[in-house]
Amino acid sequence: MSGKPEAAEAKFDAKIAAMSFEEAMAALEQVVERLESGDEPLEASITLYERGEALRRHCEARLKAAEMRVEKIVQGAGGPATEPFPEP
Description:
Belongs to the XseB family. By secondary structure, the protein is mainly α. The chain has helices at 4-17, 21-37, 42-76.
């Protein structure tokens, strides 16, 4: 097995890590649209799916970080302790 898939994944990760939440969400929406169109060949669809999963993980991490920041702000302001958001 060649190192190409790992290199492609690292390339995705580096570009995605630099994205804001909004940029990543927009890119994820484009990936979903392309996959739902059914116009992509199988290999391209798999690559798109991998990119979409990386984008999803990035968005989830950004949301979790934002949640933690808000929680610190509320607790630091002497406000009531917050409860975690319910799982979807």
